[in-house]
Amino acid sequence: MKQKITLREVGLRDGLQIHSTFMPTVDKMAWIKAEAAAGMSEIEVTSYVPPKLIPQFADAAEVTEQSIQIPGLLVAALIPNMRGAQRGVELGVHKLNFVMSVSETHNMKNVRRPREDSVADFREIVAMIRQQPEGQRPIIVGGLSTALGCSYEGRVSVKDVVKYAVALVEAGADELVVADTVGYADPNQVREVFKAVLAEVKHLPIAAHFHDTRGTGLANVTAALDCGIVHFDASLAGLGGCPFAPGASGNIVMEDLCFMLDSMGLDTGVDLNKLVEIRKAIAASLPDIAMHGALAKAGLPRNYLPASERLAAA
Amino acid sequence: MKQKITLREVGLRDGLQIHSTFMPTVDKMAWIKAEAAAGMSEIEVTSYVPPKLIPQFADAAEVTEQSIQIPGLLVAALIPNMRGAQRGVELGVHKLNFVMSVSETHNMKNVRRPREDSVADFREIVAMIRQQPEGQRPIIVGGLSTALGCSYEGRVSVKDVVKYAVALVEAGADELVVADTVGYADPNQVREVFKAVLAEVKHLPIAAHFHDTRGTGLANVTAALDCGIVHFDASLAGLGGCPFAPGASGNIVMEDLCFMLDSMGLDTGVDLNKLVEIRKAIAASLPDIAMHGALAKAGLPRNYLPASERLAAA
């Protein structure tokens, strides 16, 4: 039996947030629908932040309302605080991704509060969600940014990652995301951090969110797979970065990640050719956005059989 | 104790051979000297092929003669046949990299002979080298191209890789190189192939030569490290490809590889900052060559301490 891997598209949020040109709502929806049709089961479609702060997400309500109509798609959105969480609940989004930084400096710069206050905020958000009527409670995710390095502080201690992972779980997280926000991680560090978190946090999905800022993104995925991680964030064409992390460039490239996993015989559920096709629509909508990725240039290997067909043939 | 990793620069051969503009000999030598000064212990400086076939290597003699004067540098060159081997021996090069393809079609296209004839050629080359006076015998390396996929045949059987690895060792190879010439490999396949080769070929250095054509290069390095491989080919700025493999782009990026290994706490012996500096000279010499690499764009992480200093501080 093939191991099932869950991929989550974050390009519409992490990818677009640093891009100053607004992507028209109709183009965002075309992207979301096409990627859902390609087999992507989960997409982070927007962020519930004030449009004054990030104009790119001025259409958060429309994008959410339309996305949750797509059959079979799990629709997620980022929230920085209670206000965002309340908006998400009102809109009926399926999953809320709360984010705090493991590095104190990055947390202060990103959400303007100490880490302990972020944990307290998260606790209140969980309480608010639990007050909702059954069937209207979104999945609540605790996200740990800068867990593998910080562009202000440099190395981040593994102890702190574990401390805040445990804090978010104790506060009521349904899932965790451990993020290399600025692309500092190497495979040994990934193994060390994920093993340490997994030793303390069990029976809870833990996703890896890597950036490819220094070329190590897919190597880090390999290391995380070795630890048993099966949930990965990525963005089409490697769009992305962090507006508050100087020097950071894109997320790992979804189609390259998907090719690697499929080639390894893992079941992503995603159609590689359809995935690569979507790049054209993104490029047409935002001609000045930086597109990354090797597979789109090189194409699939000669006579390449997707994992699903290889298994069927075997 | 830190694990020692040997990196080998192949950009002057694998990188330049597909580039039609001749890099002046003086620029090649500046590159080689600068990289040796950065701590690179082994460089494949040229290829002994007829200049009519690849004009880039018209200065093979001068480059070899000057390179072997650089103290502490192991100077290697590629050879396609006996004629190339004889030139190498005459020039006093330290190491000869013989290359054949595991895929029959690629071998026919690349060196215009069946694989079995290539093995026979290699046997004769080894015999010729052994006839040389002691102290004048270069190290002879058996290289297996398309060992992880072929742009003509697609997947390549692991059995064939092992078969030709054993054949080259039996014929007298001092070392092996197992190459993903066209960038088809994934980490699982790397583990499978290298484990299979290592099971049959012991007590002999085996190097991995990966291309990053589909973005999996450093992930494949991680997988090879897991198997115990400690010798890696790469090229500065990811220059390279194979003229006979349609669609193939560059080798893995030396400076990104070096950053990943150093970050993992492995001892490459190479100074990362000096390495990145050399890119400028290459770009100045060949303004139209495609330069790849993430580290050069993003820079080292904040407060980054090289592995050597981390160990000293610990």
Q: So what's the CATH class of chain A? A: Alpha Beta
DSSP helix fraction of chain A: 40-55%
User: Helix- and strand-based class of chain A?
Assistant: alpha/beta
CATH architecture of chain A: Alpha-Beta Barrel
Order of helices and strands of chain A: EHHEHEHEHHEHEHEHEHHHH
What is the CATH H-level superfamily of chain A?
Answer: Aldolase class I
Oligomer: homodimer
Query: How is the CATH topology of chain A named?
Result: TIM Barrel
Q: Largest chain-chain contact?
A: A-B, 45 and 45 residues
User: What's the total helix number of chain A?
Assistant: 13
Low-confidence stretches of chain A: none
**Overall number of structural domains of chain A:** 1
**Percent of residues in beta strands of chain A:** 5-15%
CA distance, first residue to last residue of chain A: 12 Å
